[in-house]
Amino acid sequence: MSLEPKVSTVPGDLLDHIYEAAFVPEEWATALQQVASTHGCAAGAIGAWNDCGDAIGYRATALTEALVKATMRLNDPAATARFSALHTVQDARFTRVESLLPEAVLARDPIQMGLRSLGLDSQAATAIAMPSGDLVCISFERFARDGPFDDSLLDAFNRLRPHLARAGMMAARLGLERAQATATVMNALGLPAAVMAASGRVLATNAMLEAMETTFLPASRGGVAIDDLDANRLFQDAIVASAARYEPVVRSIPVARRADREALVIHLLPLRRSAHEIFSGGDVLLVVTSARASAQVPSPAILMGLFDLTPAEVKLATALAAGKSLQDAAAEANISRSTSRTYLDRIFRKTGTHQQSQLVALLKSAQPITVA
């Protein structure tokens, strides 16, 4: 299958900086500031917690660094009404946090008071629950004088969200500490991983990936293939895109559960800027996560956010996974049947499926995820 170059709606240098920050966390402040400034915002922050609710670490732009530090000392992402409200958002998107809280509650919220003391007001944030069990929260703030986030600005952040999710996953796994060398990173991840050249040649693997010999198969010219036709098609397309330096259709690839393995998600992270040197000149980091139960993963929508689906596509896929017909799912989303078909075609392409029953089976196989 040949690929036409895909034109990314996100500037390439912005993505490169985000993926560099995944392995060089001191770059998060400038990467977040670049994202903020590009989108008319004043500040940004990222915080991570493990599956026990303990704070892993944070990074923030200069304006809000002290406020974020004080917030992380709470050591509990649900300690304020703001975090509790953010966790009720089920469809994997950035949200205006102030729209989730009554004004009376917002006025007493310590984070909101801190923001207003800095001349900030509106905040867009997202909570990303990782299949590994970690929780990453990312936020951006606007000066009060610039007004609240509008829908077009939220849409722009949602286009960035899958990239922020993958970079955030790496940051959380590494404890927001700087990656020093290939071997150190591969061991510290605690996940099956491989470093690859742009050509697809495997440069290094860790023992966890080597143990997955029934899923990852040797291929020509030192490459690797996935023992799942649909997943392998998406995987090989992404490698071709990486070699040509354009953005692939999807960078997180679902692999359906079968008798001898659980459902998996294969993530491909480009190694850009100084991260390229950390990994001895490698161009792509392959990381494997499994879908596992976690109190911090309230619905399959969060996991679907890692498949590069838009919020509208997530909503439709989740409705179908719940057993609704396409017609009923379209009516619930207040979209036409033809629009729902367009969304469904995009979902098929991104998840490597070809028909609705296949998609539903995939989503259910990747769903040992329940509300605690």
Q: Taking strands numbered 1, 2, ... along the chain, how are they ordered across the largest sheet? A: 2-1-5-4-3
CATH superfamily of the largest domain: Transcription factor LuxR-like, autoinducer-binding domain
Please indicate the count of domains: 3
How many β-strands, per DSSP?
12
Distance between the termini: 43 Å
Radius of gyration, in angstroms, nearest whole number: 20 Å
Largest sheet: 5 strands, antiparallel
- Given helix and strand content, the structural type is alpha+beta
Order of helices and strands: HHEEHHEHHEEHHEEHEEHEEHEHHHHH
Strand content: 15-25%
What is the CATH C level class of the largest domain, in words?
Alpha Beta
CATH architecture of the largest domain: 2-Layer Sandwich
Whole-number mean pLDDT: 81
Descriptive notes:
There is one protein chain. This protein is of the alpha+beta class and 372 residues long. It folds into three domains: 12-173, Transcription factor LuxR-like, autoinducer-binding domain (Beta-Lactamase); 182-290, Beta-Lactamase, CATH 3.30.450; 300-365, Arc Repressor Mutant, subunit A. The chain is built from 16 helices and twelve strands. The strands form three sheets. It has a five-stranded antiparallel sheet with strand order 2-1-5-4-3, with helices on both faces. It has a five-stranded antiparallel sheet with strand order 7-6-12-11-10. A two-stranded antiparallel sheet has the order 8-9. Helix 1 (12-23) packs parallel to helix 7 (151-173), helix 13 (311-321) crosses helix 16 and helix 14 (326-332) crosses helix 15. The longest helix is centred in the middle third of the chain and has 23 residues, at 151-173. The protein is globular and about 60 Å long. It starts with 11 loop residues before the first helix and ends in a 7-residue tail after the last helix. Residues 1-8, 293-299 and 366-372 have low confidence and may be disordered.
